[in-house]
Fold each of these.
Amino acid sequence: MATTRDRQLVEQWRSIQDSYFRTAGAIDRALEAKFDIGLNEFEILDLVAESTDAACRMKSLGERTPMTQSAVSKVVDRLEKAGLVSRQTCADDRRSLFLELTDAGRALHESAAVEHRALLKENLG
Amino acid sequence: MATTRDRQLVEQWRSIQDSYFRTAGAIDRALEAKFDIGLNEFEILDLVAESTDAACRMKSLGERTPMTQSAVSKVVDRLEKAGLVSRQTCADDRRSLFLELTDAGRALHESAAVEHRALLKENLG
DNA sequence: CCAAGCTATATGACACGTCATTGAATGACA
DNA sequence: TGTCATTCAATGACGTGTCATATAGCTTGG
C-alpha cells in the first residue's frame, strides 16, 4: 500500500542522496584535481590535524568517521605513501599507533581545507 | 584561518554524512538479509516499478539517480541475472532499451518496498 | 606466571563503482 | 545519399571499500 506519506519519505530520501552525492562529488573532484588526494584521504588528514592530544589515534579515528577500521587503515596507507602522515608507535600500548602530520601533510592540509570549507559553504548553503 | 563558521560547516557536513551512512547502511543490510538485493538494486527496481510509461528507460533511469550510466548498466545486469527485470528492445530507437519488471521482480519489489519505507521512516524521523 | 580471551591494526579475497572506450544506431547536412 | 558527429548502452581495466581473518600485544583469573 503506497501511502502519500511513503511518497514523501521516498522524495525526502532521494533529495538527501542527491545533495549528498553532489556535495561529496564536487569536493572529491576538486581535491583530486588540485591536491591529488580524495575526499576520504582529506577527511582523515583533517581529523589528524584537529587532534591536539598525543594519544594513540588509529582507533579513535575509526570512531569519528563512518569508515570501517580497515578502510581507515588503507586510507592511512595511502597518506603515508604520499608522505603526508607518519605512523608512530605508541610506547604505552604497542598494538596501537598514532599519527602525525608531516610538514608536507600540514602544508597540504592547510590549502586543501580552504578549498574544502569553500565547497561546503557553496553546497550546504 | 579556521573560523567558527568553518567549524559549523564541518560539523554540519559530518552530521549529514553520518546520518546518510547510517540510513543507507541500515537499509542495505536489511534488504540484503531479507531479499538478497542491495540498496542500489532496490532503487533501480523502485524506479522501474514507478514508471508508468512504456518509454525507453535505461537512459531516463540514469537521470533519476546519482548513479553513473555504467553503474546503472551493471546494476541492471544483476537484476536481470536474478530474474527480476528484463531488458526489452525498443522499436523506435534500436540503441535504446526499456526495462520491465518480471512477476518475481514485482513481487519482490512489493515486499521490499514495505521494508524500505519502514526503515526510511525510522531513520528520517 | 600461564592460559584464554580480548583489543588494535593489517591484509587478502572479493564486490562494486568509475572512467575511458567501444559498438551500434541515429541524425544532420552538404 | 554519404559522411561525420552524436547518442545509447555495454565492457574492461582499475581503484577503493567491505568482510573475514591473521598477527601481535595486552589483560585477567587461577
Amino acid sequence: MTPEELSAAITTCLHDAAAAGELNVPAEALPKEVRVERPKSREHGDWATSIALQLAKPAGVPPRTIAQLLSTRLEQIDGVAKVEIAGPGFLNIILDAAAAGELAKSIVESGEAFGTNAAMAGTKINLEFVSANPTGPIHLGGTRWAAVGDSLARIFLAQGADVTREYYFNDHGNQIDKFARSLLASAKGEPAPEDGYGGEYIVDIAQAVVNAHPDILSAEDPQEEFRAHGVELMFASIRESLHEFGVDFDVYFHENSLFEDGAVEKLLEQLKGSGHMYLKDGAWWLNSTDFGDDKDRVVIKSDGNAAYIAGDIAYFKNKRDRGFDLCIYMLGADHHGYVARLKAAAAAMGDDADRVEVLIGQMVNLVKDGTPVRMSKRAGTVVTMEDLVEVVGTDAARYSLARFSSDSNIDIDLDVLTKRSNENPVFYVQYAHARTCAVGRNAEAAGVDRSAFDAGALSHATESELLAVLGQFPGVVAQAAAYREPHRVARHLEVIAGAYHRWYDACRVTPMGDEAITDVNRTRLWLNDATRQVLANGLGLLGVSAPERM
RNA sequence: GCGUGAGUAGCUCAGCAGGAUAGAGCGUCCCUCUCCUAAAGGGAAGGUCGCGGGUUCGAAUCCCGCCUCGCGCACCA
C-alpha cells in the first residue's frame, strides 16, 4: 500500500463521515485530499495524519472527538491494522505487515513504470534551458541548467507530459559580431578586441576556420566569413559537449531564423494594435509593468530597428504555433529581470501569460582554496562543462548539480571534487544499486528465486522502513514535477539508499552456510529487486547511470 | 533605493504546500566484516533554524519589520 492509496482511502472515510452527519463541517473546509505523512518516530505508527486537528475549528468540536469518530472508520480500511489517537489529536496508523509488504511485489511487477503516472498526459511542454550564446564553451552555470533541465524533462515525461527540450541559439546580434571580430583578430595574429573574447578556444576556432578555408582572409568580407564558419564550429562543439553530458536537445532553435524572412517585422506591425504596445518618443513600447516589470520595455527602437525583446515575442509565437501549451524558460539569476518581459510578450500576442513559466536558478561559483574565483570568458578563467566532466565524470557532475535546490547558490571547488570524489553522494546511491545487483547475483547462485512471496514475512523494522520509503517514491516524483524541483528525486534516492543499506545489514536474502532456503529468503529477494528497480528508475530520472558493479 | 534569491550542526546542504523529540552527507570520537560488495552499518558529540514582533491548539515553515550576502534594475544582446 502506497501513501497515496492510504490517503485516498482516508479521504473517502472523511467524506463518508461528513455525509453520514457525524461531522458537521462546511463543504469548503473538507479537503479534497487528506495528506498522510511518515512520522519521524516509529512509535507514531507507519503513517499519520493531522486532519482531526485541522478540522477542529471549522467543525467546532474538540480535535480528539473528531479523531475518535474517524479512527473507527479508518480501522475498516483494508490493510490498516490499527489506528491510535495521540497527543492533541493525531491519528497514527499502523498497517498490517502483509498490506505493507505487498508493495515489494507490485514494484517489481511495475518495473520501469513504477514512479510514473499520467498526471500530465496531454500537456505539451516546451522546456527551454541552457541556451548559452555560441560565443564560447558552456561554463558551470550552463552546466547546472543542463543537468537540472534535462532531469526535469525526464520527470515531466514520467508524468506523461509531451516534452520538447529546446535550446535557443542566439546567433543574431552584437555578441556574435564581437565573437566574429575576435576570431578575425586572432587569425590575423592581432590581440583580441577591447570588448571581444580572448579565451584559448578563440585561437583554436580561428585556426580551424583558417585550416578549412585557407583563403578566408582575402575574402570580400572576412569578418562575415568568420562569423558564419566560427558559429558553426562553436555550435558543433557545444552540441558535442552536451551529448557527452547525456543531454540531447530535441530542437536547437536559431534566433537568426526569426529575422531572416522579415517575420519579426511583420509580426510587430500586427502587434501595434494589440493594446499591449504603445508609441512614445518615437519608439514602440511593451507594457511589461503590467506583469511586474520595473518599467516598460522598448520593442521597436526609435531608429526603426527591433530590440532584443522583439525576438522573444516572435519566438514565443513560434512556440505557440508549434502547439505548445506551456513554455517553460529556465534562466540564471542574472536574467531574472526577464520574467515580466517574457510574460508580457505572451500577453502581447493576446495569449494567457500563464502559458509562460520562468524558472530562475541561482548562480554557480567557482571556488579555489576557499575563496571565490571570478569566472571571465574574456580572461579565459572559465571552467567549462568539459572541464568538470573530465575531473569528476558525467555521473558525479550531473548528480552533484542536480541534488541542490535551484534556489541555492552553489560553490564548486574543483580541488575538493578531485580529492574527495568518493564522498560525492552519487556513489552512496550508486553503491546501493550495485549492492542490490550483487545480492541478486548471489541469490541466484544459491538457488533463491522469486517463486514465492509471503508479504507478511517482511516484518523486520528495517523492512517496514524500506517499504515505506519505496512507497513514497511515486509521490516524490510527482512533487518534483509539480514544483519543478528535480533535487527532490536525488534527495529521496539518498533516503532509499540509506534504508536499503540498513536493511542489508540486518536481513539476509541468501541464507548463511547450509541453512535451508525458505519463503522468507524468496520474499526478501522481491524486496531487494524492488529496491533495485526504484533506485534504477530514480537514477534514470537524473540521467545518472545505475551500475551493476562498482 | 527598488525587485529578487539565500541565511538551519564545524563544513556543504535538505526540510519551508504549518504538525509530535529539527535531519542527511562530510569532518571529529568510539564500536561492527570467519559468508550477500565495510564505497556499508551502529553509537557519541555538535543547533538561540540571521534578529525582533505577530497569526494559532501548534511556526524552521505563514505575515510584518530589520540585519547580512548573491543576482538584477538600457531605445545592449
